[in-house]
Design brief:
Distance between the termini: 32 Å
Structural class: alpha+beta
CATH topology of one domain: Alpha-Beta Plaits
Order of helices and strands: HEHEEHHEHH
Number of strands: 4
CATH superfamily of one domain: Transposase IS200-like
Bound molecules: nickel (II) ion
Strand order of the largest sheet: 2-3-1-4
């Protein structure tokens, strides 16, 4: 378990081998959205705050990022949790509050700061709820990972997947999972997740 968190990305094949061995269902797809869809996640300050928040939370609550994409106003990620640990809610709560603290320190904007939101440590930076889907088998995980990597194309942010810098796509190309010209917005990549946008 202590090794989890050191390796920022692994191929879904490696993840799936471990997943099928343990059968504890610890691989999940998530969508998190910013408050009022404010477009700050891909800014230098936003990326830095998220990186630091994840690094901090992993020290006490290990997890591995199987795949991730940052869009200006939301992110999609597949996370692997340690065997027997399904507490992704605590991890996201801590990541969001750590992000918010760092974001505010850099002068980042925030919206509504009602008391209940402040108590949650979210302070009008993140939407309170997030979408979760448990990856049930290898095909499902592959669909989730592909969906993440094609997402900038689906949102019309780039013409080619490889032109979007803020995703794990480039690591997957290095691992030989995709060719660098992979991805076509007209193909089907887990459209059931469109309700998670
Ligand atoms: Ni999206």
């Amino acid at each position: 378990m202590s090794r989890l968190g050191r390796d920022p990305a692994m191929s879904y094949r490696v993840i799936m081998r471990r997943y099928l061995r343990s059968r504890s269902g610890q691989v999940y797809f998530f969508t998190l959205v910013t408050h009022e869809r404010r477009p700050f996640l891909t800014t230098d300050a936003g990326r830095s705050a998220l990186r630091e928040a994840i690094r901090h939370v992993r020290q006490t609550h290990p997890f591995r990022i199987t795949a991730i994409v940052l869009l200006p106003d939301h992110l999609h990620a597949v996370l692997e949790l340690p065997d027997g640990d399904s507490d992704y809610s605590t991890r996201w709560r801590l990541i969001k509050s750590q992000f918010t603290r760092r974001w505010r320190e850099t002068g980042g904007m925030e919206g509504d700061t009602s008391q209940s939101r402040q108590q949650k440590g979210e302070r009008g930076v993140w939407q309170r709820r997030f979408y979760e889907h448990t990856c049930r088998d290898e095909n499902d995980l592959k669909r989730c990972v592909d969906y993440i990597h094609v997402n900038p194309l689906k949102h019309g942010l780039v013409q080619r997947v490889r032109d979007w810098p803020w995703s794990s796509f480039h690591r997957y190309v290095k691992l030989g999972e995709y060719t660098s010209d992979w991805g076509n917005a007209d193909d089907w990549y887990g459209d059931e997740f469109l309700d998670a946008e």
